[in-house]
Design goal:
The structure is a homodimer.
Chain A lengths: L2 H4 L4 H18 L5 H8 L3 H14 L2 E4 L13 E4 L5 E7 L3 E8 L4 E8 L6 H18 L7 E8 L23 H6 L6 E5 H12 L8 E5 L5 E6 L2 E3 L20 H6 L10 H13 L3 H25 L3 E5 L6 H15 L5 E4 L6 H21 L11
Parallel strand pairs in A: 3-6, 6-7, 8-11, 11-12
Antiparallel strand pairs in A: 1-2, 3-4, 4-5, 8-9, 9-10
Helix pairs in contact in A: 2-4, 3-4, 7-12, 9-10, 10-11
The structure holds a DNA duplex.
DNA sequence: CCAAATATGCTTTGATCTTTACAAAATCGT
DNA sequence: ACGATTTTGTAAAGATCAAAGCATATTTGG
C-alpha cells in the first residue's frame, strides 16, 4: 500500500521516518515542547529529544529558550520549524497581469509583486515582464535565486506534463513558449507550469471556502469558463493534463454562456467588451429586465457544464470562482436551482472568497506541495533548495 | 505524506512493516528463495530468514522443501504465500442472473455459481436466490462462512456509502433492501455493495484490456448506459457514490442512445425487446441499411456522453464494455471517429474482452482490495477473517 | 523557605537489522 | 570418484534505535 511496505526498512530509515514525523508535528502546531511532540507522535520523550536536537543541528528547526512561562514546573525548551529555511514562488501569468507571491515553507507570504501587462503582448515581452516580476519579488524579500526551492507558474489553457501549453490559450503566441526552459536558466529548483483553473481549485481547498472537502469541482467563471478538479484531496490533471475541459463539448454550452452577458441589449457603447459583463451584473442588481434575462440565460448555460462535471464526479462542493464570483449574489441561487434540476445528488454550492489572487495562491500551494513531496519522499538531508529531476 | 510519517514508528512496528514487505514480495513473484526476497526487498538475508520463518509460523506462508534444482550450489528452500489462508466472494446481482465467484487471496477463482432470476422478481425472492447462490458457492468449495474474509455485491444503480441503492435501479423494489444487514446475519466479514459499472471498470484494470492504465473511463454499454471511473489507479465513487452518472443529463443523450437500436425499423415482431439490439447489430453486420443507420445514430449519442466523461477526466483509456461489447467490431471505429471530433486529447479506445463475468470479477477484486487494505493498514496478526468495522 | 509539579539529562535495557563468519549441501570440472 | 566452487542456512558480533526508569534542575504555590 504505502511505498514503504514494498521496500525493506532498516534502522537509519526508521530514524529518518521518525524525524519526518517530528517535522510534520512541528509544522502543524508551532512552538512545541518535547513532551507535546512526544504525545502527538506517539514516540517516547527521549527519542523526540534526540531527534529534535538533530533537526536543530541540520537547520530544520530552531530552539526557543525558555522565557516567560505561564505553566507550572520547569519551563520547557520549545522547538520551532524553521519555515525560513527555504522559500517558494507562486506566479500567475494572466492576460492582463502578472502576479508573483513569495512565501516561506509554512506558506506565509513575505512578498507580493503585481504588474499589468498588455493583453496583446507578444511572448518575448510577456516573458521579460515575468522575469522582472520574479526578480523584483525575490530581491524585494532579500533572497537570491538559490534560496527558492520551487516555482509554480499558472497559465491559461491546458498544460502537458512538460509544462507546454497545448490546445488553446488566449495569450498570443504562447504555444511556442517553454517556461520551464526559460526559468530553468536562472533557477535550479523544480519548476512546474500548471493551468490556472486547477491552481485556483487548489487555493480554494487550502485557504478558501472548500477547506473541509476532499471532492471539489471548482468553476473559474469569467469571459472564459474553466474548471479545476480535486478528487480525494488531490488535484487531478488527467492523463494528458486536460482534465476539466468540459467547455470543449458543444452540447454543453459553456462557450456561449458568457456571450449572453456580452451581447445583452442595453449595454452602452462606452462600455468596453471586457467590462460589459460587470455592467450587466450591476444592471441586473438594479432590476434591469434585459440584464436579468441575460444573467438568467448565462446561469442556465453555465449550469449545464457544471452539471456534466458534477454528474461525472459527484463532488461534495462546487465552488463558483473566477472574475464573475464578485457577482455571486446574482448567480449562486439560480445556479443552485438549475443544478438541483439537472443533477442526481446535489452538492454544496459556494462562492469563492479569495478574489483575484486565488490563482497565484494556488500556484504557491503547488510549490509547497512539491517541496513536501520531495521532503517526504527523498528524506531530509540538509535544508537546501532541491534540484530539478 | 504516508500515514507512517505522521505517527512515530517503533521497533515492533518496523518488524511488522518489513514482514508486510516480505508478504508483498511473496505475492508478486511466487515461490521465492530467501536470497531472492532479500534482493527484492533490500533487506539482509538473515533478516528475511527470520521474518519468513515467522510468516510460516503465523500461517501466512508455506515452505517448499528443496527438490529438483537446476541451478548450481546448495538448493534453496522456497517460501510461498499461503493464498488458501482465506477466501473472498464477488457477487453480481443482475436483472436476469446472479453470479457468485469465490477466490483465494491470490485471486485464483476456485468456485463459480450462476443462477438465472426472473427480471420481475420481488426483493424477497431475489434475496433468497442470492442466499442460495452464495451458500452453494461457499459450500461447493468446502468452505464455511467464517472462511470468507470479504464480500462484495454488485448491483445496478448508484449506491451510497452504507450500501443502499439510491436514485434508481431496474431491480423492482430494490431501494428498500439493505444488503449489508441481510448478509451480515451470516457473515461477520466486511461486506461492500457497489455499483456494477464501477466494478466492471475495476475488473478491466485487473485482468482486462486496461491493465496498463491508471486513468480509465469504462463504459458499460447495454440497454442502459453506465460508467465506471478509475483515476490515478483507484476506483472513484464520488462523495455520495454517484460518480459517472452522466446519463442523467438530458443534454447528453445517453438515455436515448439504446432506443435507436430498439426502435430500428425492420426488427421482426418475433424478436423480443431484450433481443432487438442484438438483432440490429447482426443485421448491420450483414449490410442492412436501416440497421446500419440505427447503429450509427446509437454511436453518435453514446459518444456525446463518453466525450463528456473524457473531457472532464482526460483518461488514458476508454473501455467499451457491457452487453454490447460483443458488437464492438461495429461500434469501436465510429466511436473513435466521434470522440476524435468531440474531444481535445484523444484517449485509447478499446473493447472489453472479459465478457459477461466482468462485473462479478470486479466485485472479487474489490473484496481482495478490502482484504489488502486491512492487512496493510492494521498489520498482520494471524490469518483469520477480519470483522466488520 | 519548602513541597509539589514539571522538564530535562543520562543510563540501562530490549528489540531489530546488518555484517561477518562458517558449516552444510549441491553441482561442476578433471 | 574427488576436490573446487557455489549457494544456502545459521550463528555470533556489532550497530542503531526506541522505551523505561531514575536522578537532577527549575518553577509555582503555600
Amino acid at each position: 500500500m504505502t511505498e514503504l511496505a514494498t521496500t525493506g526498512t532498516d534502522l537509519p530509515r526508521l530514524r529518518e521516518l521518525n524525524s519526518l514525523s517530528i517535522v510534520r508535528a512541528l509544522r502543524d502546531h508551532p512552538p512545541s515542547t518535547v513532551t507535546e511532540l512526544s504525545q502527538r507522535t506517539g514516540l517516547s520523550r527521549p527519542a523526540v529529544d534526540v531527534i529534535a536536537q538533530g533537526l536543530v543541528n541540520d537547520g530544520w528547526a530552531t530552539v526557543l529558550e525558555p522565557g516567560a512561562n505561564s505553566a507550572v514546573g520547569r519551563p520547557a525548551r520549545r522547538y520551532q520549524f524553521r519555515a525560513g529555511a527555504g522559500h517558494v514562488l507562486g506566479v500567475d501569468v494572466g492576460v492582463h497581469k502578472i502576479l508573483a507571491l513569495l512565501a516561506d515553507l509554512d506558506g506565509n507570504i513575505v512578498q507580493t509583486v503585481r504588474q499589468t501587462v498588455a493583453a496583446e503582448a507578444e511572448p518575448a515581452e510577456r516573458l521579460a515582464e515575468l522575469d522582472n516580476v520574479i526578480n523584483a519579488c525575490v530581491a524585494g524579500a532579500g533572497k537570491a535565486p538559490s534560496d527558492i526551492w520551487a516555482i509554480t507558474v499558472a497559465v491559461t489553457g491546458a498544460v502537458d506534463a512538460q509544462g507546454r501549453t497545448i490546445f488553446f490559450t488566449p495569450l498570443p503566441g504562447w504555444k511556442s513558449v517553454n517556461l520551464v526552459a526559460h526559468l530553468g536558466v536562472r533557477f535550479g529548483c523544480p519548476i512546474v507550469v500548471e493551468n490556472d483553473c486547477k491552481l485556483a481549485a487548489l487555493a480554494e481547498r487550502w485557504k478558501g471556502v472548500a477547506s473541509d472537502a476532499d471532492d471539489i469541482v471548482y468553476l473559474l467563471a469569467g469571459m472564459r469558463n474553466g474548471a479545476g478538479l480535486i478528487i480525494d484531496g488531490v488535484l487531478r490533471r488527467g492523463f494528458g493534463g486536460a482534465a476539466g475541459e468540459i467547455g470543449a463539448l458543444k452540447h454543453v454550452r459553456w462557450l456561449n454562456a458568457p456571450a449572453h452577458l456580452q451581447n445583452c441589449p442595453g449595454v452602452p457603447e462606452t462600455v468596453s467588451p471586457d467590462d460589459a459583463a460587470a455592467w450587466v451584473f450591476n444592471a441586473a442588481r438594479e432590476g434591469d429586465r434585459a440584464a436579468r434575462g441575460a444573467v438568467h440565460r448565462y446561469v442556465k448555460d453555465l449550469a449545464v457544464g457544471a452539471a456534466a462535471l458534477v454528474l461525472t464526479l459527484d463532488p461534495q462542493v462546487v465552488v463558483f470562482g473566477g472574475g464573475f464570483s464578485r457577482s455571486a449574489d446574482l448567480v449562486l441561487d439560480p445556479l443552485r436551482h438549475e443544478l438541483q434540476r439537472l443533477c442526481l445528488r446535489m452538492p454544496d454550492v459556494r462562492a469563492s472568497t479569495l478574489g483575484a489572487d486565488s490563482v497565484a495562491l494556488g500556484a504557491l500551494k503547488l510549490s509547497l506541495n512539491e517541496v513536501d513531496d520531495r521532503l517526504f519522499r527523498a528524506g531530509l538531508s540538509a535544508p537546501v533548495a532541491p534540484r530539478r529531476q
